[in-house]
Structures are given as C-alpha cells and as structure tokens.
Amino acid sequence: MTIDRVMLLIDADNVSVDVMEQAVRLLLKQHGGLHVRRAYCTAESAVKHQTIFKHLGIKPMVNLAAGKNSTDIALAVDAIDLVLAERPDVVVIASSDSDFAPLVQRLREKGCVVRGIGQQGKTGDETQSVYDDFTVLEHRKAAASEGEEAPARPARKTAARKTTAAKKTPASKKAPAAKKAAAKTAAAKTPARKTSSRKAATPAPAPEPEVPPPPPPPASEPVAADRNGRHRASASVRAVLDCLPELAAGQSLALNTAVQRLREAQLLGKNSSSLKLFAQLSDRFELVPADKPTQVRFRG
User: Fold this and answer.
1) Domains in the chain: ranges and CATH
2) Does the reported pTM lie above 0.85?
3) Which of 122, 163, 272, 294 is deepest in the core (most CB within 10 A)?
4) Three-state SS across the chain?
C-alpha cells in the first residue's frame, strides 16, 4: 500500500489555531501521513502560537514583509518551490481566502490534487469551487486539545484582573469627583487672584511731573529759548501768532505742528520744551487737554 505524499500549507493569518489542529488530524486520518506542515504568519503569531506549532509538528514560516497580501504571496511562492522539489501527490491549502485561485490552478497543472480547508463563516462558495475538494471546519471557541491549554491561561488572568479592577472602581470614582470639586473651587477663586496680581504688577503710568515754570514776564516781552536751552526775550505774542496764523483765526492747531513751526522760526530752541513756552504765555494761549496736551489755541 502506497501512502500519498501530502503537503499542508496554512495561512495562519486567516484561520484559527484550533482549525489548524483539526486540519492536521483530519489529513493524518485520511492519508496516513503528512509530509510537509508549514504555517505562514507574522513573527508575533509565531511566538503566540509556538506551543501548538510544536505540538502539531508545524514549521512556522515567518513573514517580515509588511503589506495587505504579503503572507499570501509568501505562501504561493513557497508552494511552487515545494511542488517542484518534493513532487507531492496532494497539496492542501488551509485558508478561507479566495485569492489563491491562480495558485490552485497552477498546482493542478503540475499534476497535484489540490484540496482546500477553510473556517466556517469565513469561506464563500466561490472559494470552495476552485479546489478539487473543500472541507469547512467549525471554529471551536473552547478547545480541548493539550496544545491550546497554554493560551487559555492568560484569559483567566485577564478575567481576574478585570474583577479586581471592577471592585476598585467605586473608590476610584470618588477621587476624581473630589478632584473636580476642588478644581471648580480653585477655578472660581483664580480670576480674582489673577486680577489683583495683574493690577499690582502693571500700575497705570503716572504723568511725569512738570517742572514749575518761572514767573511769566510781561506780555510785551515773552520768553523764548535759544539752541542751547538758554532763555531770551526775543519773541512776543504777536510773533507767535504770525508764525501760527490759525490761532489768530480762532482755530485750534496740533501741538506738534506748532512746535515745528516755532523751531523753524527760531522762536523755540531745539532742546527747549514747548510746554514751558506756552505756560509762560498761559494768559494768551491754552493747551488742551490739560493732562496730555495735543492741541494749542489762542485765548484772544
């Protein structure tokens, strides 16, 4: 009696671990042997399922490439190489993916019987019709095999952690509630403190003290200043009005304009203060507004 040379290639990203185990046991029962057993997966899956892989004698083929179909491509390339090198009679692909149709057709052309094994609820009719025959296996949530007992232990630990966390939840809720109340109280008080600190830190600028002007001379001899800041009696009210005719017409004049004209007429020194000059002639001229003058006008 000859035993068929059977090759099992598993898409480990597509079927569950217990479906893999069912597939191995089914093929051993049907063919009496299983010569090639390979599972194509990521490095994380290889580490996660290393116990069941060892138990079933499956060789993990780690795929480090990133991409949507990188595992499928790795399986297809390896399948062609194995068929050319090992000459199997039967090739079994464990996957519910319909993308292997071109591979199935190529393997059949090489003289292999191509069988498919898929997981219930994930395999469509179009996938099954491509293979020579197809078996759908039910995914068992509670596996009874020894190889799957190890993965079940972390699940129990997780449940215990969740229970402990659930017991501590009421106490943890109280702390945030107290923190929120304290935060609201602090928020209500903060604006008043910030406002006070800002007012204290940035006081309103006080006006520069004016040096009291000397007593004004008679109107016939108003005081002006030369380029060195020394005062001289060379200007009169009439001279100022001649320089600033708008004032004689009863109009107001911008103070900076008046200062520029007075300096051009040499009635005001380069470094002299216009405020002092008009203060000495305050009986005839008025600066407005009084606190920060920007305009000058003639009293008449």
Assistant:
1) 6-140 (3.40.50.1010), 224-298 (no CATH)
2) no
3) 272
4) CCCCCEEEEEECCCCCHHHHHHHHHHHHHHHCCCCEEEEEECHHHHHHCHHHHHHHCCEEEECCCCCCCHHHHHHHHHHHHHHHHHCCCEEEEECCCHHHHHHHHHHHHCCCEEEEEEECCCCCHHHHCCCCEEEEECCCCCCCCHHHHHHHHHHHHHHHHHHHHHHHHHHHHHHHHHHHHHHHHHHHHHHHHHHHHHHHHCCCCCCCCCCCCCCCCCCCCCCEECCCCCEECCCCHHHHHHHCHHHHCCCCEEHHHHHHHHHHCCCCCCCCCHHHHHHHCCCCEEEECCCCCCEEEECC
